[in-house]
Amino acid sequence: MSGWDIADIPDQTGRTVIVTGANSGLGAATTRALAEAGAQVIMACRNEVKARSVAVDIGKGVQVRRLDLADLASVREFADSIDAVDVLINNAGVMAVPLKRTADGFEMQIGTNYLGHFALTALLLDKVRDRIVTLSSGFHAMGKIDLEDLNWERRRYQRWAAYGQSKLADLMFAYELQRRLTAAGSSKLSLAAHPGYAATDLQAHTESVYDALMSVGNRLLAQSARMGALPTLFAATSAAVEPGRYYGPTGLRGLRGHPGRSGSSAASRDEVTARRLWELSEQLTKVSFSFPRR
Fold first, then answer.
1. Tally of domains within the chain
2. Per-residue confidence at 2, pLDDT binned at 50, 70, 90?
C-alpha cells in the first residue's frame, strides 16, 4: 500500500458514509475525497452553519445533519434519523481543552472523543453494512484508562492526560469492537486510524498558550489535512484492510506520509481493561450493543 493516495480510492458510487466532525480539518478533507469518489456523505456536525458552508464548497454528494457528541440526546436523535449506511467514520474530537462537562456530565474529552462515539456506534451498528472507522492518535501512547475515575471527578485534571486517555479509549474500543464482531460471526469490520501530525483546527481550541505553540508547529512540521486524512480514507474504502487493524502515516516515525499499518501501545491491546471499559461505557451511556450474525 506504499504511496496509496486519494486517486487510489475505489469508486464509491452507491455507498453512503457518515463522517462526524466533517465541518473542518480531517473531517472536511475526508468528506471531500469521498464525495469526489462518488459517495453520498452525511456530514454529522454540531456546527451546522460551518458545515453547510463546507458542503456548498464541496458541491454534490453531501448533506448536513446535526450531531452533538457531547449530548447523548443529540446522539440518539441523529441515530434515529439514519436508515442505512455503509461506513461510519468516528472522526470528531476535541483536544487538550480546559476542564468542561458534557450535557450528561462527562469530562469533555472522554465524553466527546470516546463516549459519544461509543454510543453512536452502538445505536447505528445494525444499520452499518460494511465498516466502522474510529480515529485515534499517537497521543494514545501517553494515555492511561482510569476505570475508577474515567471522568476526572476525583483526580486533579490534566488536559493532555485526559486527551491521551480519550484517544487510548478510542483505539481500545476499535480493537474490542472487532473482537466482538468476529465472535458474533459478523462480516462487518472495525478499524482504527490516526493522521500523524496534520495541520487542522483541532490544535486551535485548547484556550491556552498551546494554541500559539501548535500554530508554529503546524507551519513548520505538520502535513496537510489532505495527507492526514489518507489513513482514514484507506481504512474506510480499501479492500486491502485487515480486520481490527490500526492505520496511520508510514513516514517520519508515523508523523507524516502515505498510509500503512501502525503500531500501538501495549495498553491499547489490554483485552481485560478493554472489556471493563466497554462495560463501564455501557453503564455510563445507558446504550448497549447487539451483535446479530450475518
1. 1
2. low
Global confidence as pTM? 0.92
Residue 125 maps to a domain: yes
SS3 string of 55-88? HHHHCCCEEEEECCCCCHHHHHHHHHCCCCEEEE
Residue 198, domain extent: 12-285
- The string of pLDDT tens digits covering residues 18-77 is 999 999 999 999 999 999 999 999 999 999 999 999 999 999 999 999 999 999 999 999
pLDDT (0 to 100) of residue 187: 96
Residue 227 located in a structural domain: yes
- Dist CA 9 CA 231 (whole Å): 11
Question: Active-site residues: which are they?
Answer: 163
The answer to whether position 294 is within a domain reads no
Q: Give CA–CA dist 123/62, Å, rounded.
A: 22
Q: Residue range 72-89: average pLDDT? A: 98
Mean pLDDT of the residues in the chain: 92
Mean pLDDT of 88-114: 98
For residue 128 the three cell numbers come to 452499518
Q: How far apart are CA 144 and CA 150, in angstroms?
A: 10
Residue 290 within any structural domain of the chain: no
DSSP 198: B
List own/partner pairs for 256-261 with CB under 8 A and 24 or more apart.
Answer: 256/196, 256/197, 256/223, 256/227, 257/196, 257/223, 257/227, 258/1, 258/2, 258/3, 258/4, 258/5, 258/230, 259/1, 259/4, 259/193, 259/230, 259/231, 259/233, 259/234, 259/235, 260/1, 260/2, 260/4
What CATH number has the domain bearing residue 132?
3.40.50.720
Maximal CA-CA distance, the chain: 50
Measuring CA to CA, which residue among 99, 106, 70, 82 is closest to residue 18? Answer: 82
pLDDT higher than 90, residue 294: no
